[in-house]
Amino acid sequence: MNGKRIIIVTGGTLGDWALGDIHEDDVLVGSDRGALYLIQHGYTPHISLGDFDSVTAEELSLIRSSSLTFIDCDPVFKDLTDTEMAFNWALAQQPDHIVLLGALGTRFDHSLANVHLLRKGTEQGVSCSIVDANNQIIVINQSTRILRGSYTHISLLPLSLEVTGITLHGFQYPLHQATLQIGQSLGISNVLMESEGLIELQTGLLLVIQSKD
Q1: Potential cystine with 151: which of 76, 118, 167, 210 (Cβ 3.0-4.6 Å)?
Q2: 66-79: average pLDDT
Q3: What is the predicted pLDDT for the residue at 58?
Q4: Mean pLDDT on 45-60
């Protein structure tokens, strides 16, 4: 699937905002209740997978009949979350980009685990992002240009023990050859002053969170 974008819709917080992030030629993956969301909004998942423990028997039947490919598993004897199963499948397709919708929600443990999936994608050379109604989250390990878009704030947090050589261009609060370590809040709530900015770094994994509020 080189040249393709894969959208994973999973079972966290979803809303009408998510529909605007789905493009006509995207490959759609429904993870557990995320598959039901796609079908209820007129989309046909290319693949639906998970243990489907958050849907009724009637909803499960609908997901099974409305998906091009359907894979279920036992909710007790599995080692991966539904979202990680979907993410691993997406990585194996070698797409250009993976977007996770519904990856954040009331379960902080699942939300944090899903953020960590971005690290796996980055380390395998696949661009990945988590998007919700107010945020876009990526992980970078090399110098990267960031578009401001509709986001008002941007925060930088280390996802490795430390990130070195951070230099910011086009930001309200500049950094030059800075080092961020886990537990520091120095990179929180910056602002892009131009339509795009540049984040340079030398080593480490940096979590980049763009927010609308």
Answers
A1: 210
A2: 79
A3: 94
A4: 92
Q: What is the largest CA-CA distance in the chain?
A: 57
Tokens standing for residue 100 = 């996770």
3-state class (DSSP) for residue 4: coil
User: What are the φ/ψ torsions at residue 63 (nearest 5 degrees)?
Assistant: -60, -45
Contact 208, 199 (CB under 8 A): yes
Catalogue the long-range contacts made by 161-165 (C-beta closer than 8 Å, 24 or more residues apart): 161/204, 162/203, 162/204, 163/201, 163/203, 163/204, 163/205, 163/206, 164/201, 164/202, 164/203, 164/204, 165/200, 165/201, 165/202, 165/203
Position 1 scores a pLDDT of: 65
Q: How far is CA 114 from the centre of its chain?
A: 7
Other C-beta atoms within 10 Å of 108: how many? Answer: 9
Percentage of the residues of the chain whose pLDDT score is greater than 70: 97
1-45 pLDDT, tens digit per residue, is 667 999 999 999 999 999 999 999 999 999 999 999 999 999 999
- Structure token pair of residue 14: 């979803």
CB distance 114 to 100 below 8 Å: yes
The stretch 35-61 carries a mean pLDDT of 94
Name the phi and psi angles at 42, rounded to 5: 90, 15
What does the block give as tokens for 112? 């944090």
CA distances from 23 to 6, 28, 57, 97 (A): 10, 10, 30, 13
Q: Are 118 and 136 in contact (CB under 8 A)?
A: no
